[in-house]
Design goal:
A hairpin with a 2-residue loop joins β1 and β2. Strands 1-2 form a two-stranded antiparallel ribbon. It contains 10 helices and 2 strands, in the order αααββααααααα. The chain has a single domain, classed as Arp2/3 complex 21 kDa subunit ARPC3 (Orthogonal Bundle). α2 packs antiparallel against α4 and α9 packs antiparallel against α10. It is mainly alpha-helical and 226 residues long.
Length: 226
């Protein structure tokens, strides 16, 4: 009798899990995993400054623009509320990555570690607490703003996703730059020229990269869901 009750309970649990899995569109599942992996990557790649012709920008802009484009594509595919939840859940890998970085930096270094890597690791990973806080704040405000603007620009047929994505990305990147540069460097160094240079580079890259990524993600998402 006990075994029969246990089997029925297990079968009921399995059916509930199947319904929950079926309720999550395949595209949302796939891109949520991708999004979560990209969130902490921006902080580490930002240690390198990239020269793109006359423009100079930190390399972290590439994963960050990907986040902007994916959040817009998710809003296009699954609605604003789902996209906002994705942005909120993105704080989890971001904060965990920061905590693990600080933890690893406190551990003793192996004396046999390759010397250049030994010297470079603390510089690349050990960003100041002020810059870490700036990154978290800029992420939350700018990506949420991007989703809001993208959704507000939608017409009755939700067309022109790429064009709306450009506008939302440019405006959100301006806000991102204002927050990150101000919180990171105000009172430490002059920020006006740095801010203007970063804004210009991010606006150009937003106009070039974001519509391509949105179009690709929406196309893949629709194929996954069919």
């Amino acid at each position: 009798m006990h075994d029969a009750v246990a089997l029925r309970a297990k079968a009921s649990s399995n059916r509930a899990m199947d319904k929950t899995t079926a309720a999550v569109p395949r595209s949302l599942f796939v891109f949520a995993i991708f999004y979560g992996g990209m969130v902490p990557l921006g902080g580490f790649l930002g240690a390198k400054q990239v020269a793109l012709g006359p423009l100079a920008v930190e390399a972290g802009i590439f994963p960050f623009l990907t986040l902007i484009a994916v959040s817009s594509a998710i809003a296009q595919l699954h609605g604003k509320e789902v996209a906002n939840r994705l942005v909120a859940y993105g704080f989890v890998p971001l904060l965990v990555a920061i905590a693990l970085s600080y933890f690893v930096l406190q551990l003793p270094t192996d004396p046999g570690m390759y010397p250049p890597a030994k010297d470079a690791f603390p510089i690349i990973v050990g960003q100041s607490g002020r810059m870490m806080a700036a990154g978290v704040l800029a992420y939350g405000v700018s990506v949420s703003l991007n989703v809001w603007i993208f959704a507000r620009l939608a017409d009755a047929n939700a067309r022109f996703a790429e064009a709306r994505g450009i506008v939302a990305a440019i405006l959100s990147q301006i806000v991102d730059t204002l927050i990150f540069i101000t919180v990171s460097f105000y009172g430490v160094r002059p920020i006006a020229d740095l801010m203007m240079g970063q804004m210009l580079a991010k606006i150009v890259l937003s106009a070039v990269v974001v519509p391509l990524v949105i179009a690709l993600v929406v196309r893949i998402g629709r194929k996954l869901d069919t």
